[in-house]
Design goal:
The protein has about 70 residues and is mainly α. The chain contains two helices and no strands. Helix content is about 75%, strand content about 0%. The longest helix is centred in the C-terminal third of the chain and has 34 residues.
C-alpha cells in the first residue's frame, strides 16, 4: 500500500479495502497490528461517508417537503 493513493469515496470501496487488508493479515502478508490500524481507519472513513450520505438525503427530503 505504501506509495499508492487509494480512492475510497464510497462505503463499498471502504469495504473492499477492508476485505483486502483482512486477507493480507490472514495470509501473514501484513502484520496484524498494522492491519488492525488500517481497518480502524477504514471503518472511520466508512462512517464519515455514511454520515455524509445521510446528511445529503436529509437535505433532499427537506427540499421536497419545502422546509
Amino acid at each position: 500500500m505504501p506509495g499508492k493513493r487509494l480512492r475510497i469515496e464510497t462505503g463499498a470501496a471502504a469495504r473492499r479495502q477492508m476485505v483486502k487488508v483482512y486477507r493480507q493479515m490472514a495470509s501473514g502478508e501484513l502484520d496484524v497490528t498494522k492491519g488492525s490500524k488500517l481497518i480502524y481507519a477504514l471503518t472511520e472513513i466508512s462512517r464519515a461517508l455514511e454520515r455524509e450520505a445521510v446528511e445529503a438525503l436529509s437535505e433532499r427530503l427537506d427540499k421536497i417537503e419545502g422546509r
